[in-house]
Amino acid sequence: PGPKGVINDWRKFKLESEDRDSIPPSKKEILRQMSSPHNRNNKDLKERFSRKMSIQEYELIHRDKEDENCLRKYRKQCMQDMHQKLSFGPRYGFVYELETGEQFLETIGKEQKITTIVVHIYEDGIKGCDALNSSFTCLAAEYPMVKFCKIKASNTGARDRFSSEVLPTLLVYKGGELISNFISVTEQFAEEFFSGDVESFLNEYGLLPEREIHALDQTNMEEDTE
């Protein structure tokens, strides 16, 4: 059937699915008129019910839109609840600036064993350090279960170990143990690199968990296209 036929079928379905005993006679008649296209050609009936029919149509359309919006909100809430239940441990979402070597050691030693900590040791003026810090900001938002940190080499208390020749350096810890370290890490990237390049690099070594944001993005994309 064409669009008008589909609309009329929908109206008829709404009428037949209602509890007839609970519908006032006037509403029954209005719905009957709405579900019977040929009656629209009857001038007397059209004039008699034109105002009520337009109001009723508006109410049905408005109610349908409310139902659709409610369904979308429900789906989104269910998705968020599911990811919250499946995400164990603390959540972060931004880059932590460590100011001292003591703070660095405390962060590594006191974090939960299930938490992956990625530390960028940098220095101002070193090529690639600014771009890596910008990439960390993006990755911290996309992987809130990972703790991304940065600290200046001069603040580590071990500046001789982190000379400009080895910067930027990435250190990855879990359960208080160093599980990966990459010196002069930007040599692994192109001249210009972004968070996606850093993400791919870390994923090659299995250092990042699965992104939670993908499922939520997919839900939002489906809603936008409906």
TrEMBL record:
Keywords noted in UniProt: Cell projection, Cilium, Cytoplasm, Nucleus, Phosphoprotein, Sensory transduction, Vision
BP-aspect Gene Ontology terms: regulation of G protein-coupled receptor signaling pathway; visual perception
Region (Disordered): 18-44
Record's compositionally biased regions (Basic and acidic residues): 18-31
InterPro entries: Phosducin (IPR001200), Phosducin-like_reg (IPR051499), Phosducin_N_dom_sf (IPR023196), Phosducin_thioredoxin-like_dom (IPR024253), Thioredoxin-like_sf (IPR036249)
Record localization: Cell projection, Cilium, Photoreceptor outer segment; Cytoplasm, Cytosol; Nucleus; Photoreceptor inner segment
GO CC term, one of those recorded: nucleus
Superkingdom to which the source organism belongs: Eukaryota
Main location as per UniProt: other
Domain Phosducin: 2-222
Family from the record: Belongs to the phosducin family.
Protein name, UniProt field: Phosducin
